[in-house]
Amino acid sequence: MLRIALVTYNPGGEVSKDKDLPVLADALREAGAEPVVVFWDDPDVDWAAFDLALIRSTWDYSWRAEEFTAWAERCGKATRLANPLGVVRWNADKRYLGQLAEAGVPTVPTRYFAPGDAVELPADREFVVKPASGAGARYAARYPAGERDTAVRQVERMHAEGFTVMVQPYLSSIDTHGERALQFFGGRLLHAGVKGAVLAPGTPYDADKVAHPDLRRWDPTAAELAVAEQALAAVPVDAELLYARVDLVTGPDGEPCVMELELIEPNLFLDLHPDSLPRVVRAVLDAAG
User: Fold this and answer.
1) 140 near 209, Cβ under 8 Å?
2) Nearest of 23, 56, 24 to residue 40 by alpha carbon
3) What letter would DSSP give residue 255?
4) C-alpha angle with apex 155: 208 to 207, nearest 5 degrees?
């Protein structure tokens, strides 16, 4: 019997936000495996006792990036980790967008400013400021053209906490066409969804945001699928991706471009796509075996 660790975060006294986790665990159990839901930071877990450690909802990792990467290294030495350590290291820092752009992948134009750098903010267009290590729109905010005071305070706060700052133009197409999320599993397109704008004007950067507002099913266009596959092919890590999510938006030229490439702990949205569950289970069992 295959033992599979479904790796998640510790919600403390709250209910876990991962609705997919019990569904996936039940399906794996019905398929003859032994799934065990474990917290990634539990020091008592024997990772070597599993055939596979599947990272699912470690949604606090970006607050503790170094600790999480150290855990991934230990876990990857004890058992098979999906996605592997090299992928985790590369994807945890959103400077990967610059590498994708250099490889010719259409991406949202992004500038990076490390602590100590003088930050240049756009004066002629709406823009977004966010950290190069983050998830769920944490520490992200949208500013009108010419806004400086609040944006500068945000930059100073993030630099003081050691974050590299990202500055991007805000693409107005997000308000009308949303963000499309293409999910891949086992090397093939699994399903896709579209969500509304996450960043509302005037929302403080340190406020909680709804990560996937107005999420609904989506049939990706041929152009969207081509860009997503191009992005995945450009990942400079010699490791197999068990799962991936490519977030796309419409660029100024009307064509899709990559907003984010999520290779660590993407929500699968199985409640929106219950028909995808058998394929996920089959791919997980194949990876564990």
Assistant:
1) yes
2) 56
3) S
4) 10
Tokens of 116: 């100590």
pTM summary value: 0.94
For residue 80, list its beta bridge partners: 52
Residue 276 carries which DSSP code? G
What pLDDT score was predicted for residue 136? 67
Q: Which of 258, 247, 242 is nearest to 187 (CA)?
A: 242
Mean pLDDT by runs of 10 across the 289 residues of the chain is 97 90 98 98 98 96 91 98 97 95 97 94 93 80 91 93 94 94 96 93 80 93 98 94 98 96 95 97 97
Residue 20 phi, psi dihedral angles, 5° rounding:
-75, -25
Q: Which residues pair with 256 in a beta bridge?
A: 250
**pLDDT value of position 281:** 98
DSSP helix, strand, coil percent of the chain (3-state; round to 5): 30, 25, 45
Contact 182, 248 (CB under 8 A): yes
Q: If you average pLDDT over every residue of the chain, what do you get?
A: 94
241's tokens = 């991706």
Q: Bridge partners of 128?
A: 142, 168
Q: Provide the edge-to-edge strand list for the sheet that holds 165-169.
A: 111-113, 165-169, 127-131, 141-143
Cα 217 from chain centroid (whole Å): 18
Are 54 and 7 a contacting pair, CB within 8 Å?
A: yes
